[in-house]
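User: quick one, fold this
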Amino acid sequence: MPEPDALVGELTVFLEAVERETGERPVIYATRSAAERYLQDPSFVGHGLWLRDLLAEPEPVAGRDWTVWQYKSRGRLPGIVGPVDLNVFSGSEEAFARWLES
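Assistant:
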């Protein structure tokens, strides 16, 4: 595992490049252990947190709530052949629509 300082530096450069090129603020996808180890830095607070936790609904991590929670990696949906990830947004449909617009 990389040291937190090294990964924070690289992740910051990457997120800034993505935002500069797309004009959108990236969401950070992480497991609970990765978020606890690497996302404590205050520079990540403005990014949504897409948290993967397949065992239980996650509690706040790295000092903040999750935005999207991946709760299953082998779900089934009508019209899709094979397993898919299943996720839930932390808020209402209206809040989700506003989040997509931001």
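User: anything notable?
Assistant: DSSP finds three helices and four strands in the chain.
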